[in-house]
Amino acid sequence: MYKLFLTLRYLRKRRIAYAAVGAVTLCAAMVLIVMSVLGGFVQEMKAKARALLGDVILDNRSYHGFPLYEELIAEISTWPEIQRATPVLYSWGLLRFPQIEQTATVRVVGVRLEDVYEVNGFRRSLYYEQHYPGTTSLGPQKQAILGVAEEGTGGALSAVPRLPEPLHSANERARAAGVRDTDEYDREWTSFRKSLEKDGITPYPGVFALPDGMDDSPRWEGEEHPGLVIGRDIVGVRQPEGRYRRLGFYPRGYVVTLTLLPTTEAGDISGQPIKRAFRYADDSRTGVHDIDSNYVYCEFALLQRLLQMDEAQREDGSRVPGRCSQIQIKIAPGHDPAKAAERLSKFVADFAYSGRFALNISERELLRRTRAETWEQSQRHVIAPIEKERVLMQIVMGIISLVAVLLVLCILYMIVLQKTRDVGVLKSVGASSTGVGAIFVMYGAAVGAVGGLLGAALGWTFMVNINEIQEFLISIHPGMRVWDFSVYAFDRIPSRVEPVDAVGVFVASILACTGGSFAAAWRAARMEPVEALRYE
Amino acid sequence: MSDARQREAGATAAAVVGGTSADGARGAFLRAEGVSRTYRLGRVEVPVLRRADLSVRRGEFAAIMGKSGSGKSTLLHVLGALDEPQEGQVLVDGEPVYAPVGRRSYRARALDVLSVHERRRNRLRRNTFGFVFQFYHLLPELTVFENVLVTEMVRTGVLRWPTARGEARRRVAAELERVGLSHRLSHRPNELSGGERQRVAIARALVHRPSVLLADEPTGNLDATSGAAIMAIFQALHAAGQTIVMVTHDATVAACADRVLHLDDGRLAAK
Ligand SMILES: Nc1ncnc2c1ncn2[C@@H]1O[C@H](COP(=O)(O)OP(=O)(O)OP(=O)(O)O)[C@@H](O)[C@H]1O
Ligand SMILES: [Mg+2]
Predict the structure, then answer these.
(1) Does A328 share its domain with A438?
(2) End of a domain among A348, A369, A390?
(3) Ligand with smallest separation from the Cα of B65
(4) Residue A374 falls within a domain, yes or no?
(5) Mutate to test the pocket of ligand 1, among B67, B73, B135, B262 (most ligand atoms within 8 A of CB)
(6) Domain match, A37 and A132 both
(7) Closest Cα to atom 2, ligand 1: which residue?
(8) Which of residues 430-449 of A touch B (CB under 8 A)?
(9) Which ipTM value was assigned to this complex?
(10) Total structural domains within chain A
């Protein structure tokens, strides 16, 4: 009992303990903040990678793709763990924006939009699809022109600029739902937006082209071209504060051309590159710079045909099976993706040799090398370095925290020296060595507990307000921007604190301080009562 | 020592010292047999006690006198299980306090909790002895009341404390009343006079009804009146049958005792 009593009394009466608590608080807060930011970073990276890939990916890492994907999908779709599977094609191409004379090499991805919406989070990355739900398509489409519509009835007609249907109603719905355009535009476009605002119209995102004259009605215009979704960083530049600035006036529906290099059946490039016109249908903002600055997406069947990877007949009448690069799979809830991936890998190998399908040697080889991976495995090259960094930071922080532990050690040691006489008295009335030592161990633990609790609370508060704190720092001096969104992938600094981390920091503080108190406790414990009483 | 005056322990005394058998009360209750204590200062050995013998009967009031530096405090510490002698043994009611001579590893023991002797010594310090130090040694952070109470806490385990608490507080209050400090309970030691501090120390030494009260110059730092007040307390205790060993250099104080011993050259001699 005296242990607890004296621990509390010494805590209250020794002001120096507050210094120890303060040091522990700061260290605990610091560790929690670093853990949370980097942890949040990894978390967001993972979420984004997953959103783009699905839970499990079947891939053979060949530009050439693999055959029998339709048959494979048909078979595995009957498995209970597989919710949905969709083929994807990857290729390379040259993207040109004729109006602004911009070209870029891009990775061309062929997707089935409706399937991909189900398998991964691609839909959420589509900017216009968010503002005008249901209007993004990879099929043939025309240019939407903003026009002036007559509104009202009878004599009170007024001219209001609007978009052709279904864009108009989609925009109304999005506006009612409070969806806001966050993009930045060039000066010309901005002043136009301002003038629209004056007319009481919420500015639309750059979704339409301007009419030649102000009295033209809203309409769809021009030749039909298939739609192309373009990675956001190809058409816009990300600003340090996270918003996009569009490259010139480049509204949705403008024509772009894509030049592709088809491969032969044997996997070589031969013959002519193929040039195809598309309409800019949407942009994809996954938030991962590597993806947003490289990828464009078009219809799977179209890309397959352009690349001559679709089903064909040889001259001898035999069938050339169609090929895809990847099958993305959504695992049904409650099933383990890793287990499913294992089963899939085995299944595909058997499938290649089942003899049910007429495959030539090279086709069978392509299929045999196909492996299933979970999204985590396929993204380890991105995620692993950050996780390593996180571990490294934790080690560094741990070393810094050692300073706090040493401080606790010194302060406790000092207190033991000051309390030597008390130790002697306690021992002379029969307190055991362990009992006296326990006072100081408990003292250390209490310092750790209070410091850890305050630190976790401080760190948590800091994390919750981390973006506001950054704003505040920037308002003092722009150079204080720590998190540059043109460098980092996300719109906000990750600010989630895992409760597990907070509890971990708290427990670690207690353990560290308890550890730091052992030297002092040892000294107190081994003191002889008479020596202690004589101590001056 | 053989000519020490005998004092019959009355019924009251037996109650005070904890109801031990009347047979035990007749023999020497606290015995020191040939204790030697030597301090080592660098290479020089300073022998303080040289094979000193002492035997105190139950209920006896013994006073020890001697020059300053003669080793009175050291002897009292050795008697009170606080300081291990290099040679000799101390027996309480026939029970040895220290480990056999060959097994003493002075200063070498650290967390010696598992040792039987350490545990027995703790038990003796807790229950058998009450110690009044020469320089009070009160805990400065605690109030007068808490200074006494904390020793009761040491004697009571955490688990027993909630039930024992009320009784302990009552005993502490009664003990402080006996030494006349009821009006100073929530004062801190640095707010007290020397005599008051000494009385707190006495209350602390007596609160658990020790079999033996060891007092190191209880009047040493006090004026005549305060000293007399304390001696009055001692005499009342003695009358109630309390065994007391007191160190003093004041002959008038020593006169209150049944027996006065002189410590000289590391040995005790009757006067
Ligand atoms: N820890 C120690 N180390 C070295 N010498 C010590 C130690 N403790 C006591 N001594 C020496 O032992 C001798 C006896 O000390 P002790 O305190 O027992 O004397 P005392 O008789 O109580 O004196 P006083 O009447 O002044 O209180 C002294 O000479 C002292 O210097
Ligand atoms: Mg002395």
Answers:
(1) no
(2) A369
(3) 1
(4) no
(5) B73
(6) no
(7) B39
(8) 430-435, 437
(9) 0.85
(10) 2
Beta strand A323-324 with A255-260: parallel, antiparallel or unpaired? unpaired
Nearest to A526 among B110, B119, B156 (CB): B110
Domain count of the fold of chain B: 1
Domain end call among A309, A341, A369: A369
Q: What is the largest CA-CA distance in chain B?
A: 53
Are A121 and A267 found together in one domain?
yes
Tokens 């530096």 correspond to what residue? B69
Give the predicted TM-score (pTM) of the model. 0.68
Domain that holds residue B230: 3-270
Q: Is residue A447 part of a domain?
A: yes
DSSP per-residue codes, B14-60 = HHHTT---HHHHHSEEEEEEEEEEEEEETTEEEEEEEEEEEEEETT-
B110 interface with A at CB cutoff 8 Å = yes
Residue B35 in contact with residue B232, Cβ under 8 Å? Answer: no
Closest chain B CA to residue A526: B110
Q: What is the 3-state secondary structure (H, E, C) of A112-179?
A: CHHHHHHHCCHHHHEHHHHHCCCCCCCCEEEEEECEEEEECCCCCCEEEEECCCCHHHHHHHHHHCCC
Q: Tell me if B226 CB under 6 Å of ligand 1.
A: no
Same domain, A215 and A298: yes
Tens digit of each residue's pLDDT, chain B (271 residues): 333 333 333 333 333 333 343 334 446 889 999 999 998 888 888 889 999 999 999 999 999 999 888 889 999 999 988 888 888 899 888 888 888 777 776 444 544 556 777 788 888 898 899 999 888 889 988 899 999 999 888 888 778 888 888 999 999 999 999 888 889 889 999 999 888 898 899 999 999 889 999 999 988 878 888 888 889 989 999 999 999 999 998 888 888 888 999 998 888 887 6
Contact list, A528 vs chain B (CB under 8 Å): 83, 107
Q: What phi and psi values does residue B122 have, to the nearest 5 degrees?
A: -60, -40
**Are residues A216 and A69 both part of a single domain?**
yes
State which residues form the domain around A66.
61-369
**Partner-chain contact B204 A429, CB within 8 Å:** yes
User: For residues A481 and B1, which has the higher predicted lDDT (pLDDT)?
Assistant: A481
Position A454 pLDDT exceeds 60: yes
Tokens standing for residue B51: 């094979």
Q: Kindly state whether residues A303 and A404 are assigned to the same domain.
A: no
Sole residue written with tokens 């609160």: B207
**Residue B266 CB less than 6 A away from ligand 1:** no
A375, part of any domain: no
**Cβ contact A530–B126 (<8 Å):** no
Q: Between chains, do B131 and A428 touch, taking CB under 8 Å as contact? A: yes
**Is the Cβ pair A429, B158 closer than 8 Å?**
no
Whether A427 sits inside 8 A of B137 (CB atoms) is no
pLDDT at A153: 56
Calculate how close chain B gets to A403, using CA atoms only, in Å: 28
Looking at the fold, whether A16 and A136 belong to one and the same domain comes out as: no
Domain for residue A54, yes or no?
Answer: no
CATH number at residue B192: 3.40.50.300
Short-list B163, B119, B117, CA closest to A431: B119
Ligand with the closest atom to the CA of B70: 1
Q: Are residues A236 and A140 in the same domain?
A: yes
